[in-house]
Every structure is written in C-alpha cells, then in structure tokens.
C-alpha cells in the first residue's frame, strides 16, 4: 500500500497542514540569522534562569565559530559535542555548522569505551566536552584523531547569583556543584573563556551548502554497533519546517521546554532546530527533573513540550502534588515509545492542552509521521505522514511487493528529511536506502483505509516460535494491564524445537503478590493466542532503558541468556 501524505483525509484530521511544503536552499544556520534580526531582544535560551537573547546568541555563535577556526577546524571536519543541555551546547552546535563543520553529538554519560568507538569512527578533530566527561575523552586520545579537547563549564551558563551560590558552604550548593562541575587539568582550554576573548567570525566567511552534511547522529546501538547517520542541512531544515507546518507554531511566541537531551535526534530537532526556526524561547534543562521544570514554569511558562511518556507521567504527577499550574502548555509531542492512553488522558486533564504521538527515527531527522493537533487525534496510533512525506507498506521479505490495506508490512518512508546514508558504511546504506530514496524502517505497521498508521513491532524483535510470529509489543500491551504489573518486556530466547521461547521480564508494583507464570498465562489467554503466551517469567527490579526512556529489549534478552 502507498500513501503520499495526509491529502486523502479530511482537513480536520490532517491538522490543516499542507500536503507539500517548499524547502529553501539554505543552511540550518540561516534560521538563527533571521531570528536575531527579527527578535534581537527576545530570550532565545533560558538555562536555569540564565537568559540569552537572540542578539547575544548570534554574537556568541559568531565568536565560537572563530574559536573553532583558530583551533584548526575546516569545512567538512567533524566537531564532537559531549555535552548535556545548556546554552553552550546551542552555541557550539551553531558555531560548528556556521563554518561548514559537521557536528557529532555524543551522550556525555557514555563510558570511555563507548566514546572511543564513536570518536574514532567519525574522525572528529576537536571535542567540546563537559568538565565531568573530560577525563573519559582524554582516555580515548590514543585511539582517535582528536587534536584539541576543550572543556565546558555548565555553571558558566548560570546567572551570576546562582554561580556565586554554588560556592556557599552548604550541602545543597555542594550537591549542585558536584552535579554540574568537574575538575580539569590546570591551564586546560575552557570554552567560555575562548569565546569571550575571540573576535566574531567575518560575516563574509562562506556558509555551507544545503546539501552539505551537518550532523553525524549515531544510531543502531539497540540492535548492533552504533553507526553515524549523515544528516544534511537540507534534512534538518526540512524537518524543522515540517514540524512548524504540523504544529501551526506562531513565530516569535512559543516557549519550548528542552527536557529531552539535545544529543538525541528527538531533542536535537525539536529543541535546537525547530525552536530556533520559529523564534521560540528555549528553556533548557541540564537533566530532566520535575522540580526544576515546575520552577521554570513559574518563571517562563511553557507552550510546547517535546517529551517521552515517562516524562509526561512524572511531570503531571509532580504538578498535581505541588498544586502547580501547567495550563500554559498548549501541546506536547510524545515520541520514542508508545504513548499509553492513561498517560495522554492524565496530561490533557492536568494541562488542558493536547498531547499527540509522533513517529520517526534518526534516519528521518527524526520525525516522519504524527497525529494531528486536533480532536481527531487517535492515541495509540502513529498518525499520518508529515507534509512532503510519502509512505509505503511492503512485504518485509520482498520490499518491491506492497501489501493490501490493513495488512501488516514493513514501513518505507520517502521525503526531504530522509538521511544521506551511514558514515563510511556504503553496504549498510544500500541495505537501508532503496532505489528512489525509500528508507526501510524495520518497523511493522498496518495502515487503514483512511491512511492512519499503527505500529505493530520491529522486524528484528519479532519472535518466531513454533513457526508462528509473536509481536512483543502486543503481548506487552496486554500484560501491562494485569493488576500488580508495573512494566514488562517480552523477548525471544533460543527454545529448541520451537525456535524461540517467549519470555516475559516483569517489574511488579510495590507489594504485588501472587504473580507467577501461571497467573501471567491465565491473564494473557483472554486476548492472546496460545503460542504468544510467555513460557517463562522472570521478575526484575527494573528494565534497562535508553537515554530517552525506551526499553532496550536487546539488553533484556542478553541478560536472560546469561541466567
């Protein structure tokens, strides 16, 4: 089945978003230049009370770009960012892009080994690194091409009063200082000092082309060795414009809460790209902390929250407990995992706004489908294709054969946000990008006659037992409704003649009793085929999750194989 966008459904269901949008031939940095001209005194970034206007942000970016040039960075060179969310992250991101360098985002909590793989693979020549991660990056030097490592002090982005308060001899100040700051070798180059001393970049310095690579975003860690997805300026510009068309954002009025990590594709596009495109105030948080969010809400009420379901749950609960007002949030976009109906209902009850589910992957910059921001939304579905986005649903074993409407098949995506391939991996690129620019997602979906897309499962995580296919997400959805079950992950492990055995790793609610394999199977029999029922139950204290909260089934499976 093929669909080429939301034009085949009513305008109410399609959010009034256009079927096609025009993508300008410009680099991502052009949006920041326009914002600085149009709203010079509007706050661009708020970091724990430290405010930076668009004029100040553009100036810092110009100075940061010159710093990178002075460090020897040239167009096409890779600049590694190993940073939590902060104002410096925004500055460094746009500074590197302005001179035609390629940004490589890294999780600042990664081990030295994990960082070494990505730094070596990208060939990054300069790394801008959070103080607390400097030692780990320095360990990688023998295995990487790094020529310079610059430390970033998060506290330098705080307002003066809060910076001074960090040095008070009280436990709370000591804890905050330990969480934000680290020790670096004496005379180590410090980003904020270099930027403050630098002259701004010559405005005549060449800008990158829209077709140039802007970002290497590592992906695939949940299914294999992480590989760098190459995202061009055009990819990122397109996805920010698609998001603007979908949300109907009014330029110069929005306040976007940056609770998602900027180093993740979801947070990067919605917070670093989309927010600047619409002239929003970005409220950046060093980590997700409901108390910090509620404090910021009193200072700078938010209008838009990109988040994952656990964040929505925790924030709504915290607001209710504190009697806090979240009614300024008109809409939230949930991604990275299924949005439970109970979570959606709770968020909309507490805020009075809407929450919709979106779908995408790093290779689509990352958003490709979404629910409309209207009463026509359908919780539990992926929604409809974004503007200028086409989809096909095909036989996973033969991508040239489309399946009939309503049948399960692999989702293929085509659009201006689809990536340029994997860094230095032509064979894997050829497997993922088919003729005509169609991207294989590896996700099994169904599409109904009105074009709405529902996710069934990932191809690589489907369990084959006794010749039958078991979709873990469907089993998990049913088991989560069982009294006493707080969370569950369903995986397949080698099972002799069956091929694979269905195993459920279950986290129990506090005080839950009487939950064993027989009870789980009895509950599952109400909705599931017998071959889909777990044949083994393992009780665990918690499930491993990615940095945005997605359960890592691969890690669960590996853990079970060791038992």
Automatic annotation (TrEMBL):
Span list, region Disordered: 1-21
Positions of the AMP-binding enzyme C-terminal domain: 475-550
InterPro entries xref list: AMP-bd_C (IPR025110), AMP-bd_C_sf (IPR045851), AMP-binding_CS (IPR020845), AMP-dep_synth/lig_dom (IPR000873), ANL_N_sf (IPR042099), ATP-dep_AMP-bd_enzyme (IPR050237)
Ranges where the AMP-dependent synthetase/ligase domain occurs: 32-423
Domain of life: Bacteria
A UniProt-annotated Pfam family: AMP-binding
Record-given protein name: AMP-binding protein
Source taxonomy: Bacteria, Bacillati, Actinomycetota, Actinomycetes, Micrococcales
């Amino acid at each position: 089945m093929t669909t080429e966008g939301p034009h085949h459904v009513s305008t109410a269901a399609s959010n009034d978003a256009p079927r096609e949008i025009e993508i300008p031939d410009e680099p991502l940095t052009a949006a920041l230049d326009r914002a600085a001209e149009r709203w010079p005194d509007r706050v661009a970034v708020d970091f724990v009370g430290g405010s930076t206007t668009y004029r100040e942000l553009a100036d810092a970016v110009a100075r940061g770009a010159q710093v990178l040039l002075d460090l020897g960075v040239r167009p096409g060179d890779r600049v590694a960012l190993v940073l939590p969310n902060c104002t410096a992250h925004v500055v460094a991101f746009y500074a590197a892009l302005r001179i035609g360098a390629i940004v490589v985002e890294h999780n600042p909590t990664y081990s030295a080994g994990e960082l070494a793989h990505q730094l070596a693979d990208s060939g990054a020549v300069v790394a801008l690194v959070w103080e607390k991660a400097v030692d780990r990056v320095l360990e990688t030097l023998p295995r990487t091409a790094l020529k310079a490592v610059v430390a970033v002090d998060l506290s330098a982005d705080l307002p003066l009063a809060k910076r001074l308060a960090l040095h008070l001899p009280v436990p709370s100040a000591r804890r905050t200082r330990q969480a934000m700051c680290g020790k670096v070798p004496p005379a180590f180059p410090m980003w904020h000092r270099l930027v403050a001393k630098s002259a701004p970049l010559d405005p005549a310095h060449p800008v990158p082309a829209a077709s140039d690579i802007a970002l290497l975003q590592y992906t695939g860690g949940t299914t294999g060795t992480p590989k760098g997805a190459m995202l061009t300026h055009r990819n990122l510009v397109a996805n920010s414009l698609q998001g603007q068309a979908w949300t109907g954002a009014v330029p110069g009025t929005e306040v976007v809460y940056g609770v998602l990590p900027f180093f993740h594709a979801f947070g990067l596009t919605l917070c670093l790209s989309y927010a600047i495109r619409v002239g929003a105030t970005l409220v950046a948080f060093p980590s997700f902390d409901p108390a910090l969010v509620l404090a910021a809400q009193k200072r700078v009420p938010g209008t838009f929250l990109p988040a994952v379901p656990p964040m929505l749950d925790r924030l709504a609960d915290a607001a209710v407990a504190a009697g806090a007002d979240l009614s300024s949030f008109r809409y939230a976009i949930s991604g990275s995992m299924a949005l439970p109906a109970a979570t959606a209902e709770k968020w909309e009850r507490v805020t009075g706004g809407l929450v919709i589910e979106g779908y995408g992957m790093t290779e689509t910059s990352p958003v490709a489908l979404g629910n409309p921001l209207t009463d026509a939304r359908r919780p539990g579905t992926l929604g409809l294709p974004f503007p200028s986005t086409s989809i096909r649903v095909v036989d996973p074993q033969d991508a040239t054969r489309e399946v009939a409407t309503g049948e399960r098949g692999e989702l293929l995506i085509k659009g201006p946000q689809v990536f340029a391939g994997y860094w230095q991996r032509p064979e894997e690129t050829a497997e993922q990008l088919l003729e005509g620019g169609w991207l294989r997602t590896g996700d099994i979906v169904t599409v109904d006659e009105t074009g709405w897309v529902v996710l069934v499962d990932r191809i690589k995580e489907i369990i084959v037992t006794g010749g039958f296919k078991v979709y873990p997400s469907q089993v998990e959805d049913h088991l989560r409704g069982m009294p006493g079950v707080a969370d569950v992950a369903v995986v397949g492990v080698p099972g002799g003649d069956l091929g694979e055995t269905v195993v459920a790793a279950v986290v129990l609610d506090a005080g839950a009793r009487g939950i064993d394999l027989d009870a789980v199977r009895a509950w599952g029999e109400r909705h599931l085929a017998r071959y889909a029922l777990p044949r083994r139950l393992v009780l665990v204290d918690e499930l491993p999750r990615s940095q945005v909260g997605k359960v890592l089934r691969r890690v669960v499976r590996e853990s079970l194989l060791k038992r």
